[in-house]
Amino acid sequence: MITVAVISDTHLPRGARRLPATCLARLRAADLILHAGDIVSAGVLDDLRELGPPLEAVHGNVDEAALQRALPATRVVDVDGARIGLVHVPGPRSGRAERLGRLFPACDAVVYGHTHEPRVERVGSRWLLNPGSPTERRRAPAHTMLVLEVAAARIEPTLVALT
Hints:
alpha/beta; globular; five-stranded mixed β-sheet
């Protein structure tokens, strides 16, 4: 079993804002970290890489220019036979599932960010997943992240409310 910690929209640094301790603990304990964009600064990306597990990320719409050059807009990650697509901006709510399916046709799951609205939904044979944000919840009821348990190409997602 491979544990994947998934975050997005960290928007750091900003004032005294930090990742919650419970988020950091889950990131450190994971086998892999996925970040779906809006990291904001290259220094924060470096800090995330120093947590230990490998990190795969895409750039977001507010990431500094250096991050936008260093990170792709989309990425596909293979985790124990499961293919996970990663993108920041999913486009308008209307038609989102179909659009993401076209963008990542061979993926078992698509992780996206931007909306800050957590989502764990199975659409046909594909998971559509948004981890929300561990730092900026906006309209969401809580700060959140996702934990994926992956084994033999099967993905079991869990939305984690952070305290």
